[in-house]
Amino acid sequence: MPEASPEWWSEGVRFSCLGCGRCCRGEPGAIFFTPGEGARVRDFLRIDEDAFRQVYVTRRWGRPSFVERRNGDCVFYEAASAKCSIYPLRPAQCSLFPFWPSVMESREEWNRQARQCPGMNEGRLYMAEEIRNLLEQSPFEDL
Ligand code: SF4
Questions:
Q1: Per-residue pLDDT tens for 48-77?
Q2: 143: in domain
């Protein structure tokens, strides 16, 4: 049974990113970005809007999303270094993980995601107020 309370995390949760890159690759998903985030990446790449859209952008569930390679890797993930090539400019969706509304919705969903992310349930303790602040930063309510 899912947790009834939306604040199952009121005593805090532990998370420290280990930089393993698993959330940047693997099963197909979506890498949503806002228009402002897209413009910053485009400027960084020094390409125009058309080239940016053609090479880096697709649509997922009706919204612009960064392209994934055939193996499921984000187009900006560099396998050789296991790093994101636009790390300082990565969208909020990436920087806020795992503090997404859809993940924090229930302990079950959190633990389901933790099976893929070795940083969850480990490391730094995030208290409720900080979690709430992070959730409020999500550009997409349904993320
Ligand atoms: S899967 Fe988790 S630990 Fe690995 S890079 Fe992503 S957030 Fe960090």
A1: 999 999 999 999 999 999 999 999 999 999
A2: no
